[in-house]
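Practice problem: predict the structure.
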Amino acid sequence: MQILKTNGLVAAPFTPMYPDGSLNLDVIQQYAECLHQNGVVGAFVCGTTGEGLSLTTKERRQVIERWVEVAPTELAIIVHVGHNSLDDACNMALHAQQVGARSIACMAPSFFKPQGVLGMVEWCERVAAAAPSLPFYYYHIPSMTGFNMSVHDFLQIAGYRIPNLAGVKFTYEDLNDFEKCLKLDGGRFDILFGRDELLLSALRLGARGAVGSTYNFAAPLYLSMIDAFDRGELDAAQRLQQVACRMIDLLVRCSSCPIATFKRWMSEVAVECGVTRMPLTSPTEDQLTQLRSDLEAVQLQRWLTRPVIAR
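Answer:
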């Protein structure tokens, strides 16, 4: 399978919900248009930010179907199919292929862990084989799965065993491993960086594609940073990365559940995404008031997405 490299930002969208926690699928068309208009090239659906593992398999399928149905052609839909059940992960992969997703990704099972690199290769081999016509990405996120390994070693083995292996969504701070993945086999794989606060460091190592939560509502900030980097204006790029880090720090410190805060902020500045599901808890109104004040004090508002009117 020919590997097409990602060039740009892929948002990890929140899953819109009503106040009772049920799915609000009607919002997704407006959401997809918002991302596209703000320069985002893809959506990584039902991953960590999208509370994928807090949804039932049926709900995940509904969300995926809606994104594929309404997304602009230019917005690539990458479906996270990871599951603690291998059969369910394979069925999710097959479903993504049947409905027309652009590609699939799978994180490690998080209860019973794979037995090292070979165990992870075998797991991914099974999942990828369930959707052989779709590019497959291993989703590396040790902070959530509790499973870590050398991704470079994984790619060396999996590259020969998984015909549709496209690359990795690399959500970890090991930049040495990340760089080795980028350079493996002459840059064979599409390695998507997944830490928004370290994006500039990844660009310096050669990254061209990235997946992140804050690209939902602050894509203009990161695109300005990428433009400055591409023009060789490294000081300007560094200043913009510092702005992004300051924004992330304020959002993270707002409450005890960063994803819930990010989701609430998306509702405030762009698209109404509703509540998060337990065990995540939304920030209080007092916390949001303080967040608004803090963001305004450091002049971050101009970088944040403004509402898009649904057609």
